[in-house]
Amino acid sequence: MNKEKQMEKRSSILEAAVSVFSREGYPNAKMQEIATKAGIGKGTIYQYFRGKKHLFQQTVKEGITKYTDGIKNEIKGCVGIEQILKKIVTYSFSFLEDHRDIINIIEGHHSLIDENMMKWLLDRKNKLISLLSKIIDENIEKTERNIQETNLAAYCFFGMMFSVIQEKVFHHREFDMEDASDRIVEIFLHGI
């Protein structure tokens, strides 16, 4: 089987797994149900994944990688910190709304996040914070104080953005994503 076909099959298994894990929860999810949804035999899953826990962890990794790669693509061609940050917030709202299943499986199954998975998640978060730090650093006037605080500012922006997104995605609070994006960036850049 050629590499492209293998990648397609792997992707269909991951998509099916996200759907089943989200709907059934990890303990109740059956590998046979995932295989059926992916249109393959159950044994084929084991050609790509060591077992149910490995499959679960790969669905999380795949979702987070898709999110971080998407941010990088979204901000290409953006000019100025305000436009870049608004694009990041708007993309984050849309991505998390469209991929709610990934969020559901992460939220509901913390016990499956072992030490290696935790290191991987922390590495991805640090890469995102580094990206935000770089964006902030490249787009603000340099002073002695803000050079030292760029990383802290990136954490603040990240936390503020996800706190608001969490209200919409997990608590179903209705608000205009475009307006919320504008306001988050405005408060971050200029204060209240």
Mean pLDDT across every amino acid position: 88
Q: What is the oligomeric state here?
A: single chain
Q: Which overall shape is indicated by the principal axes computed on the Cα atoms?
A: elongated
What fold name goes in the CATH topology slot of the largest domain?
Tetracycline Repressor, domain 2
The CATH class assignment of the largest domain is Mainly Alpha
CATH architecture of the largest domain: Orthogonal Bundle
Strand segment count: 0
Tell me briefly what this model is:
The chain has two domains: 1-49, Arc Repressor Mutant, subunit A (Orthogonal Bundle); 53-190, Tetracycline Repressor, domain 2. The chain contains nine helices and no strands.
Task: Give a written overview of the molecule.
By secondary structure, the chain is mostly helical. The chain has two domains: 1-49, Orthogonal Bundle (Arc Repressor Mutant, subunit A); 53-190, Tetracycline Repressor, domain 2, CATH 1.10.357.10. It contains nine helices and no strands. The radius of gyration is 19 Å and the shape is elongated. It starts with a helix and ends with a helix. 21% of the residues are buried.
